[in-house]
Amino acid sequence: MLLLSRNDVESLLTMKDAINAVEEAFKQFALGNVKMPPKTSIEQNSGVVWTMPAYIGGPVSALGQKVVTVYPDNPTKHNLPTTLATVELLNPLTGECMAIMDGTFLTAMRTGAVSGVATKYLARTDSRSAAVFGAGVQAAAQLEAVTEVRRITSAKVFDNVAGRAKDYCDRMSRKLKISMEEGTDPEETLHGSDIILCASTSRVPVFNGDWLEAGTHINAVGSYRPDIRELDTTTIRRSKVIVDSQDMALRETGDLVIPLTEKSISLEHISGELGEVILGKKGRASQQEITLFKSVGLAIQDVSTAQIVYKKALEQEKGTSVRV
Fold first, then answer.
1. Which string of DSSP letters, residue by residue, matches 137-154?
2. Residue among 283, 275, 241 at smallest CA distance from 260
3. Lowest mean pLDDT among 69-78, 191-200, 273-282
């Protein structure tokens, strides 16, 4: 069995790798070649713990599971990331554990990657600017993924925590070589942005949907419970909504559950799933249309990305081999 630390995973996994792995996983999901039971959860103190197993068939067979925790108080109270995770990768033929790896960096990358895939298929091809809500680890991965699939030249970021937006701008401008600017308020941050990235821990909408401009694409990954939301009802109603999994989205995200409960939208307002977009069955209908990808995070993202990490670890002789 191979043990892979966070440093190992960081040295092996690129955003391009993650995007390619996740895109193939969602394609197989749409083709019916995936077994993925609903994630199980335990609420503990101010956080939540999830267990997420999946099997992916098709050209690259992969089996495994992730244990992930989301503790919103971690950054301020414990100097830890909000999200922490561990991934176990199994041999699909024997059930043998092939690798255990740190999943915290992998989780950020695979979540960014799925937004990258959605952006690749749904955002206007001439998109050049982005607005980012949230300035944490996931917000960084979101912007990195978008720059991988679109020629983004500038971005604005808004965060309610003093100093975080400036630090984010400094860090991301150096990493991505694009112009970064702090937004003065949510409306100003949105103005002129082709792509909007929502990766906050907010429990209430981060902007007013009336401010959205025609042709915008939105990726929203922050809301992970049915009683909290990053997006208001106006945003949902104005957008063509694509989800990673409709079944899981309807269980887990207030962005959709709340307007459905209010009867502000019906189930038919959800246009389809990302896999259908990849297969060409769904997609953007016009340059003026507002598109929205809502992700709650699926185990196939973790397992497919972990498979890539494991393969590269073997090729580059990274990690620690142990007998169990």
1. HHHHHHHHHHHHHS---E
2. 241
3. 69-78
Kindly report each contact of residues 189-194 with a partner whose C-beta sits within 8 Å and lies 24 or more positions away, as own/partner. Answer: 189/131, 189/132, 189/133, 189/156, 189/157, 189/158, 190/131, 192/129, 193/129, 193/130, 193/131, 193/156, 194/123, 194/124, 194/126, 194/127, 194/128, 194/129, 194/130
Q: Rounded to an integer, what distance in angstroms lies between the CA atom of residue 154 and that of residue 40? A: 39
CATH assignment of 2-107+300-321? 3.30.1780.10
Q: How far apart are CA 243 and CA 296, in angstroms?
A: 8
pLDDT tens per residue, range 187-205 = 999 999 999 999 998 889 9
Instruction: Give the CA distances from residue 301 to residues 19, 54, 130, 178, in Å, rounded to whole numbers and listed in that order.
Output: 9, 9, 24, 27
Residue 160: count other Cβ atoms within 10 Å of its Cβ.
Answer: 14
- The whole model's pTM is what? 0.93
Structure token pair of residue 296: 């709650």
Instruction: Say which amino acid occupies 6.
Output: R
Helix (H) or strand (E) holding 241: strand 240-243
H/E element holding 176? helix 164-176
Q: Could you give the residue numbers annotated as active site?
A: 66
Q: Which fold has domain 125-297?
A: Rossmann fold (3.40.50)
